[in-house]
């Protein structure tokens, strides 16, 4: 909301500096984005350079066909010679002049005395646009001839204004109006709030007007007023200045008046050209299938049966609360106007706006929930202005409204405020604050909520906030007085951090990839019905897709030695309800299967879990692959990337189930280990892992470690066979193992592998 | 020689013995040579030690112990001298210590993880638990239970990713308030970091996927002062001990009163700079006193239990603290960027 400060001061007296007001409003009411200046800068004595002038002589510039050369009396001893490019005036005109030294709006440009085509120009005659009073560039601005030359321009035209730019919170529809903000400023500064503007003009006739509301829930109130003899034209400068200052565009006096009253009071209005209403009737109803309306922005719109429309006897003439139709637009030829002051339900307006991709000033107000009582005040004020500024004669009125809800009455305990804030707030202060805000407070603390806050303030806690927000700066800094403490990471959270650290130590960089991916290997992956882009349409069931594109991005960036991992959720569809979201660890690296497997083994080792790999094809693109408890590891086939690439993925909660609760000490110190290197000749198809497992099983508890040494084919090994060598260590906690023990254990192992795998010990 | 013979050696002989030993010690050019000399002249089987074993009179004892003491000193001195010789020899050979060491490969935690852990640790220190919440939420968890108005624009399909009419990708971490209160009996102090989703077109400061942290305290007698004090502790831990915080009025459906909190700018310490837009304050997030209706929605009695909640973005903290201009960098995973932190 842009608030011209001169406008604000019309409704509330305050002596605070603007910066201080802005600083305090931020705490109590709403965010203040900034204070800006519209129009002529008010720095130093700049305003003195802007004065009323009377044109004494005007004629063609001797050296330029498109320029006028004038003599202008600006209240000084001698008139000034001024060259001007506009032709909409002549001698005798009263105009706005800036003399050399004046800084123009925007603050960038200072007027200087200079020669134009050989003639001195000792100032400049101003147009509305140059003063930021409107878009009209047709000519210079003409002022009332009653004004004396030399009168400060600021006394007769709003040459400039300070603008407070405020955010509007969704729960504060009352702060979408200057008057509502004035009320807040009055409470904050202690300044006096003037009565709401608007007095009824004389009503000259009682023409009948037919208004019907078919959906009182969506439109609980509709006031229609008729005006005759309306003269559509330009708004006066002061009105334009305020409309511009508030961020809107002046259009014509009638339209500007509806906008002005909306800005002033917060209840949007609309004006129809009454003569163009079929049957002169207003029907507020839902659109019917197939109806269409060209709105004021020139767009033809297909209406939806959910849209609330204002219709005449035949057709829609506005989308309720959103925008009027071109078919009843007020234009230069309009002489009779139907003024609409209504009330629309937020959700209806919100949905219509979404449906038609529209965003209007009125919509943003209706969406927050406008006080239905404001419609009457808005009708009054707009009627006054239509009479004063457009010659309108009020000739008829009709109103339809739903039953009035009694204002909410809330039992309030002042002590509750203190319990919420952790700060003492005197009862008298609480009462005064509420009354200033328009609440009625009875002696026994029954609080009646003003209509303009009825939506937001419904419960005792809402009343507390009204008091509390004026004391936020005073709230002390304390910590909860705790009776129980339980700050610790859960087991799996600690393990997650642990494996992240292991991978970082192993040279991996942690990646964050999108949960939404363009593709997923699982055809049942959940697809967003309305994705933001085709690149983010599926909820991933694996981390591999995102990691692969992260790897690609790094290759494209020229990075080398790429090793990435991610710890994140995947989203596995379940029958009924929300998906399951297990934590996964995924990794990708430049290297072969065994490089990836090494990383997985490091993770398992850190968790004290013995991994068991089995040959498998866990992903479609795998050339080499294996499953391991809770996941997989694989080498990719060709990816269009240089070198070999491998990946792995583990489901962490499943893996963490395998982590031993505690590790028991084994005595590996008291007696020395007995080490043997054993090589076995076996069939090609026998996996080394199974041999190692069999050694472990056969040797029993004296086995301390089995380490794979080599995998050999060639000389001395028959075709179809291979030699697998292990370094085996035996150790006892009770005694030193003797050479006889060594021979016995070796025999046990050799026999076991011989009978299970037809393995023979290689000499 | 036997001990008797050794005993017969006179003073002069021991003088010669000492001279011989000293010569051997000083001639040693390595640890091994020095050790050999020590064993030969001072070891268990040396003449000197053998002779000492046979000593019966005080005078001989003093003589031989004197010899042993001086020779031990000589060994120690030679040891020091040898270290100096070795150092000089190495220096002469021109070892360049500024050449890098053998590489030990290491990766990096993502900056957002580093900050997330830092945040978690601060709250763990204040006695909070860390909650892991699912990112897919029911409309009830994400909106209804948090008393969000059915007409609130955040519910619109233009703002929220719906999976179906009852299910969304959570738009904030606040549904974890609901889940935690349903899963636990108060007192409850929890912090919940995680991914959230909104239909924002990606640019330098928006991403459809982003990370938030939710903080919730539910106990008896919790006040806004407790909220402010907790926020202060947190930001001091994160941004330095001389930070200050303030609360401003705001609106969120699930807190009443609602506030936004700011922290004094840690770049300019409140004097005003580009980071804080000359205000001296940096907006950090939203907070408030838990709305009694939220407690009712999870079957807690608001007369017995009170609470505060606050939430903020992790990316924002990372960008502010490390000067990153564009949050898309967090999701590009470029090693050149990840490797900086």
Structure description:
The complex is a heterodimer of chains A (763) and B (341). Chain A has six domains: 2-40 and 162-189, Phenylalanyl-tRNA Synthetase, Chain B, domain 1, CATH 3.30.56.10; 46-158, OB fold (Dihydrolipoamide Acetyltransferase, E2P) (Beta Barrel), CATH 2.40.50; 203-401, 3-Layer(bba) Sandwich (Phenylalanyl-tRNA Synthetase, Chain B, domain 3); 409-474, 2-Layer Sandwich (Phenylalanyl-tRNA Synthetase, Chain B, domain 1), CATH 3.30.56; 491-656, BirA Bifunctional Protein, domain 2; 674-761, Alpha-Beta Plaits. Chain A has 18 helices and 38 strands. In chain A, helix 7 packs across helix 8 (361-368). The termini of chain A are far apart. The mean pLDDT of chain A is 94. Chain B is an alpha+beta fold and 341 residues long. Chain B has two domains: 3-92, no CATH class; 111-338, BirA Bifunctional Protein, domain 2 (2-Layer Sandwich). Chain B has 13 helices and ten strands. In chain B, the strands form two sheets. Chain B has a seven-stranded mixed beta sheet, sandwiched between helices. In chain B, strands 2-4-3 form a three-stranded antiparallel beta sheet. In chain B, helix 3 runs antiparallel to helix 5 (58-92). Classes of the chains: A alpha+beta (763), B alpha+beta (341). At the A-B interface, helix 2, helix 7, helix 10, helix 12 and helix 13 of A face helix 6, strand 1, strand 2, strand 3 and strand 5 of B.
